[in-house]
Design goal:
The protein is α+β, with helices and mostly antiparallel strands. The protein is built from 4 helices and 6 strands; from the N terminus they run βααβββαβαβ. Helix 3 links the parallel strand 4 and strand 5.
Length: 153
Amino acid sequence: MQIRLESPRQPDVVQLIDDLDAFQKPLYPPESHHGIDLNALDQPHVLFAVARSEQGVALGCGAMVLGADCGEVKRMYVRPEARGQGLARALLALVETAAIARGCTRFALETGPLQPEALGLYARMGYEESGPFGDYAPDVHSVFMPKEVQVAA
């Protein structure tokens, strides 16, 4: 397995994002979808990671959008056949580490209550449920989870 920061503008990565949308869109009403598009992912303030098999097949992705007060986790997805191998944890750890290297010490994310595996992963990675952050409004279809990072001096 190889996980590294890459461009989201690759056909196999675009397919991952499309697969994520196909998975999530039936779960929640349109007004509760907060994914970002390819143009937003392909910006200098976005860290985008891809997990690949030894053969170079894209198996998962995840992003961290670096904002003024925190980094927001976006577009986390692992293909069903690759789940259970720690890829999501490794993707999240990579974008967190890269964000910390850029001076980010607070992370946050929005996910849905119908995704228990995602909620479990984020809780194991130190994210805790809280109220909305940034421009988000309260929504019964959203779970908001921030994480403060302790950086050694």
